[in-house]
Amino acid sequence: MDHEYFMKQAINKAGQALATGDVPIGAVVVRDGEIIAAACNEKERCGDALRHAELLALERAAAAIGDWRLSDCTLYVTLEPCPMCAGAIINARVGALVYGAADEKAGACGSVCNLFAMPLNHAPAVTRGVRERECAELLERFFETLR
Amino acid sequence: MDHEYFMKQAINKAGQALATGDVPIGAVVVRDGEIIAAACNEKERCGDALRHAELLALERAAAAIGDWRLSDCTLYVTLEPCPMCAGAIINARVGALVYGAADEKAGACGSVCNLFAMPLNHAPAVTRGVRERECAELLERFFETLR
């Protein structure tokens, strides 16, 4: 089980967002080789701009292990996290981040800015571009159907 | 009713965090001169690093008005928002932000960085330093008792 495998699970989760007209973004949190939390973007479903897949997955992971520190966890997400989610990764001390597609408009892990390069009190190890094409195509197809 | 009045309500809310050993930070969301949501930091209480006062207050505000867009709302918070909370303010399109004390270690509205000056898709109007001394003293007293 590797990055490709877990990103595939995040992609599967992303697909669930489509049922409620939400942008298809998915995330899973892995600890000791096991998925302990998963979520898709629920912004439209819940009418709450803060319900990004990453925030929900991290919240569920903390509940699952009973600790706010997620140092031994890896977050897999289909799209580069925005400032809110990158900040949540810092606050929860997430050990590692793996993402698929870059987000040129709102990405805070290297695209618009890189919060992990700032003098804040934590930065995860970052792996970019895992199943990048699949992650990006899911989004492209979604936005095409909106046009 | 003005900035001083609403910041006082955020300070009162901050005090509630002390009961659970949480860092005393409080927030209220105001719309049409009325407080529609309030929250204090619940990180330790809930064992979840994402339960900052701002995030909770914005979540409750969206639920209160039934819309994720908080363009006509003002968020009052005792401490300068961190990257996660500043990012949440952007995502929820919060119209205005008023904060008390600056956060030299994690503030993302001018101290460590300024997310609102980056080419993201929204930035609130910002007022800094309202009841700054009171907001800062609440935190100083809390950290002194920990020593």
Automatic annotation (TrEMBL), chains A, B:
What stretches pass through the bilayer? none
Annotated ranges, domain CMP/dCMP-type deaminase: 1-146
Catalytic residues identified in the record: E54 (proton donor)
Q: Name one GO molecular function term.
A: tRNA-specific adenosine-34 deaminase activity
| Entries under PROSITE patterns matching the protein | CYT_DCMP_DEAMINASES_1, CYT_DCMP_DEAMINASES_2
Q: Which domain of life is it from?
A: Bacteria
Cofactor: how and how many bound: Binds 1 zinc ion per subunit.
Protein keywords: Hydrolase, Metal-binding, tRNA processing, Zinc
Q: What's its EC?
A: 3.5.4.33
Q: Which GO terms describe its biological process?
A: tRNA wobble adenosine to inosine editing
Positions with a binding annotation for Zn(2+): H52, C82, C85
Q: Which InterPro entries match?
A: APOBEC/CMP_deaminase_Zn-bd (IPR016192), CMP_dCMP_dom (IPR002125), Cytidine_deaminase-like (IPR016193), MafB19-deam (IPR058535), tRNA_aden_deaminase (IPR028883)
Q: Could you list the residue ranges forming a coiled coil in this record?
A: none
The Swiss-Prot or TrEMBL record lists the needed cofactor(s) as: Zn(2+)
Q: What class of enzyme is it?
A: hydrolase
Q: Which reaction does it catalyse?
A: adenosine(34) in tRNA + H2O + H(+) = inosine(34) in tRNA + NH4(+)
What does this protein do, in the record's words?
Catalyzes the deamination of adenosine to inosine at the wobble position 34 of tRNA(Arg2).
Its quaternary structure?
Answer: Homodimer.
Family, similarity comment:
Belongs to the cytidine and deoxycytidylate deaminase family. ADAT2 subfamily.
Its name, as the record gives it, is: tRNA-specific adenosine deaminase
